[in-house]
Amino acid sequence: MSTPNVSGETQHHPVRNQIRGVGYFSRIGPGIVTGAADDDPSGIGTYSQTGAQFGYRLLWAAPVLLPFAFAIQETCARLALVSGQGLARVIKRRMPNWVLYLTVFLVALANTVNIAADLSSMAAVTLMFVHIPQLVAVLIIALAVGIAEIFIPYHQYARVLRWLCLSLISYVAVLAVANVDWPSAVIGLTHISFAWNRIDIAAIIAIAGTTISPYLFFWQAAEEIEETGAAPDTSQSHIKAMRGDVLVGMFSGVFVMFAIMTTTAATLNVQGITQINSPEQAAQALQPIAGNAAGILFALGILGTGLLAVPVLAGSTAYAVSEAMGWRESLERKPSQAKQFYAVIAASMVIAIALNFLGVNPMRSLIVAALLNGLTAPLLMAIIWWLARDKQLLGEWTSPWWSTALVGIGAILMAALPILWLFAPA
């Protein structure tokens, strides 16, 4: 339960204020889970393909995207902490209904397609260890994740999600055993370079859309108030603690992106393997080049991040839809207390399972999800930029100039990328 702060308000994630010392991992807030969920199996597939196809050339995307990713997630957390409401409720309160319903529809659609692709990748990786039909593996994983999210209270489920974040370490371990050309990696990391053609721009769109995904916006805001309901917390110390939590989370997610791109550049690209159709294919391709341990670690990372990301995807959809419709929403409530909320989670999982049984190509699913995210992200970032400057909503706690500048510039750049793609040569 929460504890009151000095102003008499209820404090969100109170243990986050004691972020130092022994027990750090049990005290962090939702920022680390959000950052880790950014590296879902579909993201791993995107980063693997980028490293295999372009080598070290696009590594600069990691440091460039980090400040934008941090700013947008910090703003979403700020909106929730100050208003005591989730993102969709804030949009409903301050924006026209058509804006709300359009963004929620696009996010829900993209999330469901993304879940289907993630389940397919997780099932394919499972077959590397257990010989069962892939569709059976999809069903087992989906049921396990869905049942856990619906029936385990949030305060217990959050601990599970935090421990699943450790699966990201597997990619740091793979990076350690790969024979990286570090001088080339440093050049790729510090020099912005891309060719003026649709192939390079499409890769940048994919990386940006995967790293700055709308489902993370809704999840971050919802989890900021999950433990305390809707009581705002505007203490300076907690705003600072939230910012540190979000920074650690997004840095970890972006660093893993760098690790995956660097690893596949050092192993697959140098061997002439430039086409990766799925994350599990990347894991299999690593084995003869970097050793069985590297391939197994890569595969286990896909499973771990998938078990983390799928409930985040389904949960963010449920929060967005429930807030838009005015339904009760909370992972802390029992299913009987938030029937519509949990029905949305169940529906997302069922549709994702159905897409797999219908034989929908997982890579096409990822492309569709990336396109939907690409359309939704700049629109939603523009909305969040507007809300972050709304003094009637946030009072003295409006976002600082540097944060609104980053969110605004990020929205413009992400909106401009598809236009640049249209005019670029093939």
UniProtKB/TrEMBL annotation:
Keywords assigned: Membrane, Transmembrane, Transmembrane helix, Transport
Location in the cell: Membrane
One Gene Ontology cellular component annotation held by this UniProt entry: plasma membrane
One Pfam family recorded for the sequence: Nramp
InterPro entries per record: NRAMP_fam
GO molecular function: cadmium ion transmembrane transporter activity; manganese ion transmembrane transporter activity
Membrane topology of this protein: Multi-pass membrane protein
Ranges that cross the membrane: 98-117, 123-148, 160-179, 199-218, 246-268, 296-321, 341-360, 366-388, 400-424
Gene Ontology biological process terms in this record: iron ion transmembrane transport
Name this protein carries in UniProt: Unannotated protein
PANTHER family: NATURAL RESISTANCE-ASSOCIATED MACROPHAGE PROTEIN 2, SOLUTE CARRIER PROTEIN FAMILY 11 MEMBER
